[in-house]
Amino acid sequence: MTEIQPKSGTADTVAESLERAIHEHRLPPGTKLGEDELSEIYGVSRTRIRAALQALSHRRLVEHQRNRGAFVAQPTVREAHEVFEARALLEPRTARSAAIRMTDAHVTALQAHIDAEHAALHAGESGRALSLSGEFHIEIARIADQSTIEAIVQQLVVRSSLIIALYWRRRAALCESHAHGALIDAFAARDGALAEELMAHHLLDLVTSLDLRNQSSQPGSLKAALA
Amino acid sequence: MTEIQPKSGTADTVAESLERAIHEHRLPPGTKLGEDELSEIYGVSRTRIRAALQALSHRRLVEHQRNRGAFVAQPTVREAHEVFEARALLEPRTARSAAIRMTDAHVTALQAHIDAEHAALHAGESGRALSLSGEFHIEIARIADQSTIEAIVQQLVVRSSLIIALYWRRRAALCESHAHGALIDAFAARDGALAEELMAHHLLDLVTSLDLRNQSSQPGSLKAALA
DNA sequence: GTGCACATGATTGTATACAACATCGGCCAC
DNA sequence: GTGGCCGATGTTGTATACAATCATGTGCAC
């Protein structure tokens, strides 16, 4: 297993660390999350690990199988459609609200976010880049000053990261940043209507860049492996 | 023969029972949820109670205060606005989708739902009526065949119930049912655009029937009490 | 050699014991 | 009499021990 920050902490700390690892694709879908293993890695007792896993389970980031353990979630094709449908309802209008409340400081912060994403990409840290790309969306909800929507969007964004891990079609994730750049321009111009439309199209583009034909890429990918 | 109910008392069962009680206003906001007390009531150990309370805490239905215990959540005025803002983004478009997928069986089921709500109201069970009224909204998301949105809406609806408990202005909850009746008519006519508009207005009406002036009705309502 | 039965080991589910902390009462100083 | 200090009591936080369940590997029968 990849090295996870052996940073001792509370159950929430563990949950956040695991969520980051999932978001950054360091823990791919289907990975078994053994309780003893995690308790040794984080240096905390199983009680806290269980609490963390339960939290992630409620957010649909891990799937719990009774008496078998916890695994990083493997969203189905149907779930993938549903997650992006929910995002399509929430994020465009939220982007509009954000554009209205946007300050110059917000714009520069968003730009810095994109720069960091590019830097991570050039450093070969594609997982970190993807994570930053997702946080861009969360940041918009935060600027819109809607913490409830922000929490929902955050959950949907991390689930989207799992979906991308399973169903991404092209290798390069570069194309995205253009959409984010265009969004920043709209924000800088305080053009709420444009931001809303750009966000809607951006989400549509995301879905179409997935391969969501029913293929049940679950464990039984025998036919694909034997071809 | 008390074994008739299979698995009566898992953590999920306890959580569902508590959520129902909260939704029906049998547990008003601010109620202390003592672990020992609950473990005796449900006849299960504290471990399961804690798991249930954690689950409700993640759904923002109970607030956890460290070393002090769990309390039924008391949404602030700001949270109230945020919850209805999120619902305003999700539910109208979902109602439109539901109208398209609506079958005659669905329509009669929704009508039965409203009838049950009226019956509960006339029986003096106002809490149960409110709960059924909320489930009407959840049912629509289910008909739209969007389980992810359904889960989010469910959470928002129960939080709305808490908000209503704290900030409801008028005593009578009768007026609502008219909105639901009009929605059913739109569904029966498979008029998605109308359903979307009706739902949007229904949610706006709900907000305006709340008293959301900053009053911090939290424990420290000293100024109000001393006036 | 194949397939089933069973024993073994490992992992999770649950309960309970103990430690840490907050609340509340009385007591004392001022 | 007011205010603060400080034990007594109860509640929550955490760890650990034990039970239940699943996965694995061996051996036997066919």
Automatic annotation (TrEMBL), chains A, B:
It comes from the Bacteria. The keyword Transcription applies. Gene3D superfamilies: GntR ligand-binding domain-like (1.20.120.530), Winged helix-like DNA-binding domain superfamily/Winged helix DNA-binding domain (1.10.10.10). Residues 8-75 form the HTH gntR-type domain. GO terms for molecular function: DNA binding; DNA-binding transcription factor activity. Keywords: DNA-binding, Transcription, Transcription regulation. This is DNA-binding GntR family transcriptional regulator.
